[in-house]
Design brief:
heterodimer; A: 631 residues; alpha+beta; Dipeptide-binding Protein, domain 3; 7-stranded mixed beta sheet; 24 strands; B: 306 residues; mainly alpha; MetI-like fold; 2 domains; flat
């Protein structure tokens, strides 16, 4: 038998190779969508409550309608699901009047649905990274963090199947009542608790008594919990402690403190309501699949192919369907900017969101009409670890800032037209908020040398050899090399450059294990607060060790201030402190760069680099000629 | 033969467990985690996320939980592409990778085999020297350089082929050629040296003495004997091709699984990285067994028993 097989091998090989080759070139034919754009990396998810990035935002923002939406030209919040809204005089109570609208499966959207969706976002089990975006609502933070104490009115989510068998993924049955007692799980030391479990999240270490009934974490062994009922979670009672109230088409939101940018947050994609009737039936992430997803926005999901494309199709049940011009859209998941550039130049793509640095410099010089640039509310800066000597000395930090030539840096790395920073808050914010950033950054090498000498390092003598770290990237490397050269030339200080892998780089920042590190910050909304509250003492994004009581007090005062001018002044005083102390070295305001084909209409530049797909339009005749011929 | 296969499978299982253990602890020893980002959420939110993914549990418990899950054949949910399970990620990327890999193999076998035969027909001749130099260049030039050159010529210069993407046969031409040429270079050298050795052998001399023509001797008689090293090479080569090419998939924007390999590691997508590492181990192991069995079928001198 073996011999017969042996003689057949060459013939078999030929057949196999031919068959494989034929199979490989048989493709299903799929015509491209009306509009194709480069969306960058594959989105983390299509669940608005579980994503944070820009590629995700472009899709989620088209699939889901928020209570409000941004005007693409002015970034002013306009009516979305809410047709209008009112604010109380003290800025604390917002009332939204919803318009008649429905999901793409015909299910109506009412105020109760909005609240249910936000409850899901706040539920710690959802683990929504952007949950803190609605912490300005009264009681929202406590619910989200799950703080409960004896005497609180709480809700207990029981373990076990939900009440409605049609909705297998809904929450378990919820029991509400007063939390009477918290006991140690271990009966042996029932009397003397080593640690009083107050103001703490639900934990499997304790037994909770609510309305006379004992509850314990479902994950725990039943033998030790005795008669206690298994519970999934115990949270502050949502209905009575969180400031959200519904009345069919009216939604009342009670805030913890006046938050002037609250309407902007409502236009931000993570706060768009999600379809609870679908999520409860198919679970998460099951509901985001092509088969089950329903949407409320201008587009619905056509299909999604992992790391290839996501097809969006116009939603015929969208309330404002008349204004949606483009019928179908392909969002390509392409990470390589040179590949994206090649696709755009050959006419396969109508909008390219990522441009390789070398091409950007050339395009800027040539003043290409397809390149759309706009200063962004994004700052590129260096963080300084203020906990380490000699960087803990303010004079050293000031010297480092004074010795820089920011214009030279941006011109060399990014080309003409880019903006060196004079403040931490990007200057583009003024026309939207009236806030004038504290543009106190100066460049003066003589003064820098003088300050450095006062700090004990004349001409850089005796200055320890410390590092300037950045995540591996061509652009970051170029900036760092220029900075290194400028400091060496002006101050006589020699920094060591460290290029780091992304994960390790982030880790070094969050553990304050660095000297000076590159960083950037994109404004979440158009308000100085999104930049300045980073540096309050202990803030998760502070990462410099900077701490100033007067700074913290100013930011806190601004949060309670309703008058726009007084509030801006408080922020300005805070930024002045920041620019005096310099725990960060602002370098440049980033410029958004989009390549837009000439047949695309209604593409508006704005400082958040947000371009709602539903606002765009195309001249299809011009496109067909352009796509065929390439450019 | 059965005994041999069973023993090899047992070894493969041990290998999988070892790879799992090493990868598990290596991944967690590297700083950063799947939810590191430049934009830190408040610590309370971070805690909720870590609890949801059980990253707050002690390491040994995570190890046993993950081992239990994997031994049931469940590769888990991807951390970074949260809407997909690891199995779905692999299933979604597999067709593109296999298609591309198959075409690359066809390119490699046809070009490499052909070049090898032509070289061996007149060793030391002008054609042989040219072919050998070309194959040396093919081995030495990295695929990103080759891909860049190909895009420059065929896309920008001559407008013959699409720049990137996936969807029809035209999209596969450049990536499959770029991927296949490196393998073709290796194969041509293996075929050439195998053929030259076979041409010295007794059975070829017998065939010649019986009056077989030169090409018949080379293609029918000697080539079969020369295939041994090529088959040995094809085992790991196919495993490599089936797990995708990082560079080619990135440059040509092909939705295969190769690019996930690197992305999963840099993004600390623990589950996806683990799934792909185990998949690669499994493929290498299985193809190793297949190659050994094929050797027996091809070459009567090889035996699997000790």
């Amino acid at each position: 038998m073996l011999a017969r097989l042996r003689s057949m091998v060459p013939a078999l090989l030929v057949v196999l190779v031919v068959a494989a080759g034929m199979w490989a070139v048989s493709f299903p034919n799929e015509p491209p969508a009306d509009f194709v754009f480069i969306n960058g990396t594959e989105p983390q998810s299509l669940d608005p409550q579980r994503v944070t990035g820009q590629p995700e935002g472009r899709l989620v923002g088209s699939l889901f309608e928020g209570l409000l939406r941004w005007d693409p030209r002015t970034l002013e919040p306009r009516g979305g699901l809410a047709k209008n809204w009112t604010v109380s005089a003290d800025g604390l109570i917002y009332t939204f009047y919803l318009r008649p609208a429905c999901w793409s499966d015909g299910e109506p959207i009412d105020a109760f649905g909005v609240i249910a969706a936000w409850r899901r976002m706040l539920d710690p089990a959802t683990a929504a990274e952007y949950a803190y975006q609605i912490w300005s609502v009264k009681g929202a933070k406590n619910y989200s963090v799950g703080l409960i104490a004896k005497g609180d009115f709480v809700e207990v989510e029981l373990d076990g199947p939900p009440v409605d068998p049609q909705l297998p993924f809904a929450r378990g049955r919820v029991v509400r009542g007063v939390l009477e007692n918290i006991d140690s799980l271990d009966s042996r030391d029932n009397s003397s608790l080593s640690r009083e479990p107050t103001r703490e999240g639900f934990s499997d270490q304790w037994i909770y008594t609510v309305n006379g009934q004992r509850y314990a974490a479902a994950s725990h062994a039943s033998t030790r919990t005795g008669d206690a009922i298994a519970a999934r979670c115990i949270l502050p009672d949502f209905q009575t402690t969180v400031g959200l109230h519904a009345q069919s088409d009216t939604l009342t939101v009670e805030l913890q403190r006046p938050t002037p940018y609250f309407p902007q947050l409502l236009a931000f994609y993570p706060l768009a309501p999600v379809p609870m009737h679908v999520i409860d039936r198919y679970g998460s992430p099951g509901w985001t699949s092509q088969k089950h997803m329903v949407s409320s926005g201008p587009y619905r999901l056509g299909f999604r192919r992992l790391r290839d494309r996501i097809r969006l199709v116009r939603n015929d049940l969208y309330w404002d369907r008349e204004s949606v011009k483009i019928g179908s859209i392909d969002a390509l998941a392409i990470e390589s900017s040179s590949t994206a550039f090649a696709l755009f130049t050959t006419g396969a793509v109508d909008w390219n969101t990522s441009i390789p640095p070398f091409a950007a410099r050339t395009l800027i010089k040539r003043e290409s009409p397809e390149l759309r640039t706009s200063p962004e509310l994004t700052i590129g800066f260096y963080r300084i670890n203020t906990t380490r000597a000699p960087l803990s000395d303010k004079r050293v930090r000031q010297a480092l800032s004074l010795a820089l030539d920011r214009t030279d840096i941006v011109q060399t790395v990014f080309g003409p037209g880019e903006v060196p920073s004079k403040s931490f808050v990007p200057s583009g914010i003024e026309s939207f908020t009236g806030y004038i950033p504290a543009a106190t950054i100066q460049e003066n090498a003589d003064l820098a040398r003088q300050l450095l000498a006062e700090a004990g390092f004349p001409k850089g003598k005796g200055f320890p050899r410390i590092t300037l770290s950045f995540n591996a990237d061509e652009g970051h490397q170029m900036v760092a090399e220029l900075v290194q050269a400028q400091w060496k030339e002006q101050l006589g200080i020699d920094f060591e450059l460290v290029s780091m892998e992304w994960g390790a780089f982030l880790h070094s920042q969050s553990t304050l294990d660095f000297w000076i590190a590159r960083s950037g910050w994109i404004g979440d909304y158009v308000d100085p607060n999104t930049f300045l509250d980073l540096f309050v003492t202990g803030g998760a994004n502070n990462q410099t060790g900077f701490s100033s009581d007067s700074y913290d007090a100013l930011i806190a005062a601004a949060a309670d201030e309703t008058d726009r001018n007084r509030r801006n002044n408080l922020f300005r005083d805070a930024e002045m402190i920041l620019m005096q102390e310099l725990p960060v070295l602002p370098l440049f305001v980033r410029t958004s760069k989009n390549l837009v084909a000439p047949w695309v209409r209604n593409f508006h530049n704005n400082p958040l680099d947000i371009h709602p797909l539903s606002a765009l339009d195309i001249d299809s005749q011009a496109r067909d000629i352009g796509r065929r011929g390439g450019r | 033969m059965m005994k041999f296969i069973v023993r090899r499978i047992a070894w493969l299982a041990i290998m999988l467990w070892t790879v799992f253990t090493i990868s598990f602890f290596l991944m967690r020893a590297v700083p950063g985690g799947p939810f590191s980002s430049e934009r830190q959420p408040p610590p309370e939110v971070r805690k909720a996320i870590e609890r949801r993914y059980q990253l707050d549990a002690p390491l040994w418990r995570q190890y046993f939980t993950e081992m239990g899950r994997l031994s049931r054949g469940d590769l888990g949910q991807s951390f970074r592409m949260a809407d997909y399970t690891v199995a779905e990620v692999i299933a979604a990327g597999w067709p593109a990778t296999v298609t591309l890999g198959t075409m690359a193999l066809v390119v490699a076998l046809v070009i490499g085999g052909g070049a090898g035969v032509i070289s061996a027909a007149r060793p030391g001749g002008v054609v042989d020297v040219l072919m050998r130099s070309a194959s040396m260049v093919g081995i030495a030039v990295p695929s990103f350089a080759l891909a860049g050159l190909a895009v420059l010529l065929f896309v920008y210069q001559w407008h013959l082929l699409p720049a990137a993407g996936w969807g029809d046969a035209a999209h596969t031409v450049l990536p499959a050629s770029c991927l296949g040429l490196a393998y073709a270079a290796e194969i041509s050298r293996l075929v050439r040296s195998g053929l030259l050795e076979a041409l010295q052998s007794d059975w070829v001399r017998t065939a010649r003495s019986k009056g077989a023509g030169r090409w018949r001797v080379v293609v029918v008689h000697a080539l079969r004997g020369a295939l041994g090293p090529v088959v040995s090479f094809l085992g790991p080569a196919i495993a490599g091709i089936l797990t995708g090419s990082v560079v080619i998939e990135k440059v040509f924007a092909i939705p295969g699984i190769g690019y996930h390999f690197v992305e999963a590691a840099t993004q600390r997508d623990y589950t996806l990285a683990m799934g792909l590492v185990l998949l690669y181990t499994l493929l290498l192991g299985v193809l190793g067994i297949v190659v050994d069995v094929l050797q027996v079928i091809l070459d009567p001198r090889v035996s699997l028993e000790r």
